[in-house]
Amino acid sequence: MREAVVVEAVRTAVGKRNGGLAGVHAADLSAVVLQALVDRTGLDPELVDDVVWGCVGQLGDQSSNIGRYAVLAAGWPETIPGTTVNRACGSSQQALDFAAQAVMSGQQDVVVAGGVEVMSRVPLGASRAGGMPYGPQVLARYEDFSFNQGVSAELIARKWGLGRAVLDEFAALSHERAAAAQDGGAFDAQIVPVTDGTGGTVTDGTGGTVTADEGIRRGTSNATLAKLKPSFQEDGVIHAGNSSQISDGAAALLVTTPEKARELGLTPIARYRAGVVTGSDPVLMLTGPIPATEKVLRKAGVALSEVGVFEVNEAFAPIPLAWLAETGANPDLLNPLGGAIALGHPLGASGAVLMTRMLHHMRDHGIRYGLQTMCEGGGTANATVVELAS
After folding, report:
1. 55 catalytic residue (yes or no)
2. What is the pLDDT of residues 191-243, one digit of tens each?
3. Hey, what's the signal peptide range on this chain (predicted)?
């Protein structure tokens, strides 16, 4: 079987709800990162066999195969196809898996993977309006559980004995690490500037260009978070401050073979070692990263101790903390640049955003192996291992 490599990874800054990216259509935001791949690599878009694009809220601005309209918005040839993937929060991580699988199988040679979500324009849960996606048989199987992720996060916190102080401490650390990364320039090379669409300027306060992640709240502490009320249960421990932020953003990765990269004069960032997806208890819902991690390490033939960075999506603070407790991973290697609590979670884009952050971090610090995993609605999870190219 052929090998797959990632030769470029780019993202927009992650905009906060109703922030700098709220005025940008999802197709246009996607076009920014697609065009950035071309600008940075010199790739002729005619060589792209497919664009696999993650998106969760596939209605309104994001309906009717946003992956295809992203290609057209980027000005790429009409002959380049695009498709849209929905595996909940793991959509664009699944897009990367599909792209790598297509390349490794020999069916395709150059594939773009990524995703987009503009939650300011297509609100969280909008696709469920007036409907019940689970159906009566699913509800009966799980005793009419609400399938509410916040409630599931509360159940996880209770099962692993994670009190509010511990969760808030983790949330504050996410902001601290993200602020340090931003101040240290860790994100600069990976972020593509986006004009916010207002026609204004930064100086007159009416708009401009978005170049930095907007969700970081400097000075966040246990004391500031203690003021927030629980969001899902009156006596609960989950609140807005230890949950991921509603966000806008897009990211894209260029996947090919080492041979094709060499032919095109491109230098791989990393090899795709293994990718898996697994199902888990849909009531706890968000614990899938635990078995997915074990499964992907086994498939990759890599020991946990060999991994130098872990990206575990911070949908809610209990998720990475329960993962940490079960895997025994080094906490210093977990989300070293902060996570979705500080940097935001633009659903369909998050898998590609996290992978972009991780790949650049690996290259900047000479880290051989990285592992990324995402919990997902409905009780599934993706996990991917990549190896820094030599």
Report:
1. no
2. 999 987 654 444 444 468 999 999 999 999 999 999 999 999 999 999 999 99
3. none
